[in-house]
Amino acid sequence: MSGAREVMLPRVVRRIFFWVAVALLALWSLAPIYWIVVSSISTRIELYTVPYKHWIPQSPTLQNYIDVFTTGPKYRAGGFLPSATLLYSGVRNSILVALLAAALLSLLASLAGYAFARLNFRGRSFLFFMMLLLVPLPIWVSLIALFQLMSVVGLIDTKLGLVLLFVAYGAPLYVWLMQTYIRATPRDIAEAALIDGASHFRVLRTIILPVAFPGLVSVFLVAFLTVWNAFLIPLIFTNSESAQPLTVVLSLFIGQYEVAWEAMSAAAVVTMIPPIVMALFFQRYIVRGLALGAVQ
Amino acid sequence: MLRIRSEERTAYLAILPVGLLLVLFVYYPAISTFLLGLTDANPRVQGLEGVAHFIGLRNYVQTLGSGEFWASVWRTTLIVLMVLPLELAIGLGAAMILNEEFRGRAVLRTIAIIPWMLPPLVNGFMWSWILNGDYGALNGLLYQLHLVTGYHHWLASPSAQLFWVALAQVWTRFPFAMVVLLAGLQSIPQDVVEAARVDGARPAQVFRSVTFPMLLPAFTVVLAVEFIVTFQIFDVIWSLTSGGAAGQIINPFTKAVMILNYEVVFRNLDLGLGSAVAYLILLLSMGVGYVFVRMLYERGA
Amino acid sequence: MKVRHSIVFALALIIALMLPTLGRGGAAQTITFITAPWGVPPDQALFKGFQDRTGITVQVISAPSAEMYTKVQVASSSRRAPADVIFLTEEAPSFVVAPGYMEPLDAFVAKSPDLNVGDIERMDFWTVGGKVQGITTYVQLVMMDYNAKRLQAGGFSKPAATWDELRRQSLALKQKGVDPYPLALGAIDWSWYLMSLSAGDPMFDSGLNPVFSNSGSPARTAMTRLIGFFATDKVITPDLLTKVTPHDVFMGGTGVYHQAWQGSLAVMNNAKISKQAPDVQYLLMPDQHYTWSLDAAIGLSRFSGKKDAGWEFIKWYVSPENLRAIYKAVGLVPSRSSLQRALNSEGAIQGFDVMAEQAKYVHQLPRTAKWWGPWTQSVTEAIRKAAQGQLTSDAAVDAVAKRWNELKAQYKQ
Known about the structure:
The complex is a heterotrimer of chains A (296), B (301) and C (413). Chain B is mainly alpha-helical.
């Protein structure tokens, strides 16, 4: 490292770089999404145009949304189940299952994460290892034994069954994450409280979690979105609109001979709205957590 | 009678719910499946009345000796090598941007998460339409900007197929890295960072010697998780190069390990062999993941 | 405080979720029907009529066909019914019938004269191991179609009668600028089967031996031709190297000739979704004209507990009324010969004449062989590798013949 001081980039230049980075990030994230929205208000023929220049569709149509919300597309795809029913139940199921699974996961991960991070007990490393051991196991072949188990317990085609599966298969990762976040919190206040006679649960609740709040929120968010996007488990373990989430419903737009992209994109736009609302809602809590953390 | 300390009791209690769920829904089927991998189970060969035979580790030997298996591991490795650096770089960069205070931060944060909200199946179809060589949007854009003179068939060559699979995966997964790393950044106490800055360190130095080391645990989690997720990539490959309509055909050039596993289990109905492949995938993922974790924990300590 | 609230909240949600399930199981008889999306009964009024009349409620489970088979296999492997009634597409023999997941229907057919099974075509295909495994719902020959107007723009008034002629026409169309990629055939097994069969190669003999690998066979020529289309003639768009079917390429406006299906005109001539409308017509397969068929059927799950109710639904599904509704909705030609004739006399079936002519030249592929499914994967892989120049076309044919024999040995044991 050279002893001489190098000139720092002038502030203005640094600000410009920053805003360019912001713009790039926004563009990178949004450009394909913009195209999905455009597709959803285009007709199929327009999507086939060469050279494609319909960044703003020539004759925008809401027909795809109407189709998706009413009787469903009448071409050789999407089935003839009233897609409005499917879409509505899909959204409902996705929200319920994702919310409950994320809530349970946050709760259980906080508890177990705290134990692994701060408590001493026999078999700690062993249990931690065992918990993470099967995370990378591809689920394919377990499906059959799992299906048998779920049938016996009567959890096939139920939202509760889905929640339990997501919690079981997701827990290891979130426990590990919470353990990481909790480890990073300062020990001193917690130790003081413990000496004063507080129980571990109390310490967790009143001291640790407020500081690790951004971590907890991110666990909730990650869990929510992961469950929201899940396809294989719901596909195998649900059959009807009582439990089928959106990801499965959307796959019905795959026809025998082509993918009804204009309809699928309309449905996709609709399905992105709840998570976006969710994420916007969470901004507030992340900021609040920051404020709390700063007070420390 | 062993005395369980109250701290231990609290710990076991805290872990109990997770433990129960894991034993019931994860371990039990996994063990049952492992036992299946020691047989030659194949419903087509045995039919409903037939019985599978115990063959010990023959499925494992067969897989380890199979050129196709290793070719698929290699392909998957290529995808991982393309995805991980890019995804982590973008995720970290985005997290750092969002860690700064600026107007519109909440909006940008929401925007940056949107790629993750797209169901993986839809993600694959979207890229397949964008990349379409005859009427796709990417071609249209480049043509309109006069960057190309004719339409290009982006997915024509096997290596191009792998590349675009990797890109689509990076695009849809980077928000995960971003969110986890952002939370990690935000839990770094500001006083340490401030102290370093006051001492006259340049931003790059601050990052290297203060920020990144404290970010290491979160970074390790992201690296390990994304390694496993990418190694087991399936949906994007399925809808980008194999899907589109009924009777999906598995594209040989993008046959990653999970696709191979799917083929063995659901196309060939070779349940015993499929279980062996799955467990070998587990070993490979675990092996590499463990190496990563050790590497980073050693550095972090 | 917060922890306790979350626990209460979670419990409340759990109870809320469980309540609906507790009130289940009230209907008189409920059966489930698992199908690909295009198998869902399209006429809601008709469907409801059936359910009201018989008191059987039918719950439809719709899934894209690959996912449908995954569901069927997972459930059946654990000896549970994926659904009571199962829709069988042409891949079903290998995936679902061969492992024995379907209930033989002979007894049901025998006691149901109202089914009028003689009117239903291609029942022989669904009779496996001497037992009827499904009732045919629609018939679908693999055919080819072409855009007559664009062909004419290239100076050809009639479609090709031989493959050589088709090749010459494609090259001419490309050169004249009518279409840079005049052929819409996928780099998939189907293209090769179609070209081989129509060139007169029976592919397999009665002992299920691969005669296609005989030296100088029409199938070898077909493979060389197909690979040539991609690699040297470049008359097929490179996008078809990865796509599963050529249909959206053709509908998007690329291609003059196209590998299609019986009933495709209804889709290809639909101006809302196809740029080739309304000029598309069938052509009789070149050379020896042979092709094969992809009929679908409907059957009962071996593990169903409601077989009688399921059978009633099956009978309704293949009734003339429902089959007619299906035809009107998705253009799938009904399996009942009487209905085909009726529809044709109403002028409702586009291109019926060519269809009828083509129907005289059907040579089935042995899809009922247990190892057919795994084998087709190897064919597509070989074709794709050859199209990328990694294999010669003869090596590709040798490779798939070898794979056939390997699989045959494995399964026959």
